[in-house]
What does this fold into?
Amino acid sequence: MSKTKLVNKIKPLESSVEDTEYKEIKGLAKFPSENPNPVIRVLNDGNILYHNKASTFLLNFWGCQTTKILPDNYIKIVSDVLHSGLNSVAEVECKDRVILLTFAPIIEEGYVNIYGIDITERKKAEEDIKTINESLEKLVFERTKELEENNVKLINEINEHKKTEEESRRSKLLLEAFVENTPSVIFIKDLKGRFIRINRAFEDLFGINRKDFLGKKDYDLYPTSKITAERMRANDRMVLEAGKPLIIEEAPKVQGENRFYTTVKFPIHDEQGEIASIAGIATDITERIKTENMLQEQKKALEQKNIALNEILGQLAIEKKQIKDNVIANAENLLLPIIEKISLKGESGKYAQLLRENVQELTSSLGARLSDRKLRLTSREIDICNMIKNGLTSKEIAGLLNISLLTIEKHRFHIRKKLGIVNEKLNLSSVLKTL
It folds into this structure.
């Protein structure tokens, strides 16, 4: 065989390998900016190399959208994880949202990937239950537009990266690092439903090895649940028919346990604009669902307790009325007849009259109201209020208490002041009778 013919055969082979590698890189390149969660890449000194659309609100909140440098407290976390080689997590409250940040070091490249997950629902499940559906609908609308724009941008970026072999290799390493280190479950299927790409989170979730699993379908992933597998395939067909991203809530049974996921599925197009494969990013929302169910159960329990409490309060009201009726009956039938038989004259007679009138009003609220801390009446002022209410004059009160008439007038002034009627032309006795 001539040298010319051998070269002609090798070149198509190299081109085929490059096309395959390009398609794989293009597919992987879509993940960072299409991820609905924040993704940020930073150097050891805090300089931001990359951030996706979903992380813009964090950068604005931190005030580093212009400087492109993380706040000092996050720079320290970045430095620590690069030094230790271990992932680290931190929570950040951004206005009305709570974001869980995972700091994943890529030591060989000298940077850290920061993956954010919105856990606001977990923190505020009860308040957010009613708005979840509205938020998801809004997210579908917003993310669809962003994904279309990012698709064009990513294709342009990949074309730039392919200019040299080194740039292509580096791009592949960066994308591989992102896919493998993100806590989200990521997968790619061909048009026949065969898995052609899965990440580490996918392997961990289903307890499988990717080398043995690639090329298989949903029926192999759920061998004991044909219904679940068919539902997954139906979702894929919806994406293919719509030709755009869809957000789907799924509840597959994973390793014997029912788990709940919010999955963003979207088509991947080839250079001709035709759909070549389907990609998915799944987020575990099991804990949120459990929290919602628990809150519903607690709500029902509280409603039952409230019914029981109302019954108890009703019974207490009945018993309270019975006690009041008994007090009135005892006062009228036992005390008043004895007081009527007491024959006192002079000052003692006044006290007997007071005693008689107070017994008749034994169940009134005057004593309690006069003793209210807000009025701040002294014990002497309360005694005088009682005498004034029962029609005694200042002179009679002075005689009974053995104090001067001037002192009685001062007490009357202080009482009017505490009752807020100093400048009012109101009879103090009449006001006291209304309390």
